[in-house]
Specification:
Elements lengths: L2 E5 L2 E3 L5 E8 L6 E8 L6 E6 L6 E3 L7 E6 L4 E6 L8 E9 L8 E2 L3 E5 L2
Parallel strand pairs: 2-11
Antiparallel strand pairs: 1-3, 3-8, 4-5, 4-9, 5-6, 7-8, 9-10, 9-11
Amino acid sequence: QMQLVESGGGLVQPGGSLRLSCTASGFTFSSYAMRWYRQAPGKERELVARITGTGGITNYGDAAKGRFTISRDNAKNTVYLQMNRLKPEDTAVYYCNAVIGDWNRIGGYWGQGTQVTVSS
């Protein structure tokens, strides 16, 4: 059974950092591109970052550029999102998503999400 489990969310002050993790099971992790999305209350889900199966190529949404870093450890079946210089507008539920092959594919498998709250 395919499963994605996110962790690492929480409450952080503006300017702080968090590292999110998403651990996968039930599929060949390295064959899947991985994506982080987020959804704030009343807003549409948006792409934060994505990474190819090998980890060799990454891509970021505008809000994440220069502040967030996506990485993966295929030996641990885990993808990470390092978030620095957090802002209140980064407050959202963050989801990881796995898609076979091409990271432009629609759909894929989703984790349950982890809440990130940036507030003083």
